[in-house]
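Feature request, filed as a ticket because there's no other form

It would be nice if the structure record came with a short human-readable summary line next to the tokens. Right now we just get the raw output. Example of a typical job, pasted below so the devs can see what we mean:
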Amino acid sequence: MRLAYTVATPEVAQMPIAWVGDPATVLPSLAEIGYGGVELQTRDPGAFDTAAFHRQVQAAGLVVTGVSSGPAATDDGLYLTSPDATVRAQALRRLTAILELAAEYGTHMAIGSARGFARWAGDRETALGWLRPAISQLVERASALGTRIVIEPQSRSFTDLFNTVAQSLEFVESFGTDLLGIEADSYHMALEERSIPAALVAASRSGRLVHVQVSDTNRLAPGWGHLGWADFFGTLQALGYQGWVCVEAAQQPHSAAVARQGYRLAELVGGEATG
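Raw output as currently delivered:
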């Protein structure tokens, strides 16, 4: 199992589910624990030296496993379904920049909360009328860059657009391109899926499962809640999942403790962890 941990890029001042801090300290600490990769939470690629940061990742012996766009939404209020057309345009420009960063780092970009809420538009049809063209433009740019876009099913407190694996698959498959995939997040799955193993099977069989994120039912580190981790990791193993599994959890009591717990749990239940 290839294990990664979520970290914030240097311009992100706060992110409750990522290790925020000096990369010169954070990255070697994760490598020392045993992690092989980092998933990035990025707000604005234009606000930090992307090449210098990548060199720090590589110097620690790590790879970038994905670039998430969450802080662009939560910190800067950039949503693809904002009722304000100016904000929607700004969101598309920012996500394009994050997609270009992902391509620079040789990985995919994930879109979660940046989808926003259909209710902001007044009705779902209007929201999808804003969202679909934006995703199409991003797919066109991803094709030119040779990278992929990943849609993350999230629970209803984060978005009302595609809460489950099945809903997300229906959306991405409607574009008719392999450049769109999905990721599975154990926290959101525990809130929305009737059966987590069944959802993982459906995601895997679709051929679009690109990435897996893990935290427990209370958003704490894996093993500090009530999720059935033997079933979760056992399902991934039975499916022959070869992608990255990334710890994305609340940083409580502190990031180093969460990172150690996530790695320890994955080794105990998921088998030998590798980088």
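Something like this underneath would help us a lot:
The chain has a mean pLDDT of 96.
The CA atoms of residues 34 and 130 lie 42 Å apart.
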